[in-house]
Amino acid sequence: MKKFLIKSLTIALLLSSIPSKKMQTECISPVSLTDITQPDENVSFPKGPKAKSITSASAIVMDADTGLILYDKKSNVKHYPASITKIMTTLLCIENCTMNETVTFKESEVLNLESGASNIDTKVGETLTIEQCLYAIMLASANEVCLGVADYISGDIPTFAELMNNRAKEIGCKNTHFSNPNGLHSDDHYTTAYDMAMISKEALKNSTFRKVAGTKVAYIPKTNKHDARPPIVNHHNMLNAYTYNQYLYDSCTGGKTGYTSMAQSTLVTFAERDGMRLICVVMKGQAPKQSLTANIYTDTTSLLDFAFENYQIQDLTSNIEDTNSVDSPLFTRFTSFFDMDTAPLQTSNNGQIILPNGADVSNTVHQVEFYNNIKEENGKNVIGSVSYTYGNQLVGHTDIYFTPNTDTKQLASIDDIEFTSSTKITGSSKFSSNLLKYTIIIICILIVCLFLFFYLRLLKRRRMLSNRRSHYIGEPRNKNIHF
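Below the sequence we write its predicted structure tokens.
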């Protein structure tokens, strides 16, 4: 009875704490509810390879979904990026163009490259589709194609570089400044391993980017100025045996190579194993031709092996009972009343967190946050999120979706989700949402009143019995007997 009472009161408290429509439009901070789960005081993360064993000057391994840093070696030191710059160029091209748009190349774009710069022999006046440009940039590292798409998108290179820098700030880059779209050397063109990991994390959200970056061979048919080219081959030796086959890595899903004499070798690698998606960036490293046993590929292999062997993905759904976590439908741990597949508040089904081996979801702290405004992602109304931290580091999150009653065929609005925590919102009207909220609150109050009523009645009965005993003890048993 006591446990049920506490759960009922918790529901009532949550429901009564949700802001009204007026509060939602005026409130600056989102509604936030922190779980009572306490973190393990002995939280620790695996250390990883010693810095001296990694030959690259800077390195980082980051979880692609959460941004959790699994390994760090001077990842905030500035370096010249060389051609890994093209990850940002490709991302902006995807975000600002459609695949069937065409680019016609100018003389300034194809004839002014420095000696030895990678290219696909693009001709003046040649027309390529944006899709063809993407494969030329990411696989063949075509510098002239980068200039062509930059001019096409922004009108000139300085304006495109400004677009790159603004996007980098939005992504969360701390020490990045781009001055061109291809990474050919410029003193004011620099970034860090951390920033490149953040740019890659953002790019990997895009399915087109993932497809292009993970392609081993692509073909460009005959154009208006060029016969069909030889196959365009991905230069990343962990994905495709371009120049070496000993560095092939089964879990590699893509990436980008880079090299200039000033930058030395740079490498970004994407890898996935058992549901864990990782980004590894190494900068100012050695090329295989300098050392077959200590180079950017051996560094990356060592770092990815460390991460995959010392961390694991845990499914949030399978740990509901043990962790008392928020699941779908939301707040079902409180009462079976909400245990229905049609509940309009749901969490994403693929909620996962990344933890060191031996750590458990119960060692994490999670926080429920409801947004002030509705965000639409993949056709769903995202109204909040649940974030999980371990040792004060974000290790996972899942979105909270609102789905109106399909029978009403109505779109979600602020009115529909005015009482966000209630999982019985029908989406049909504000009245139905209010009615459910107050009904549950009244039921909880009635439960409390009934509990207090029976409790007070029990106390009264005990007091009466106590008084009777005192009365009998203080008087003779038979009042008619006289002495």
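The chain is about 30% helix and 20% strand.
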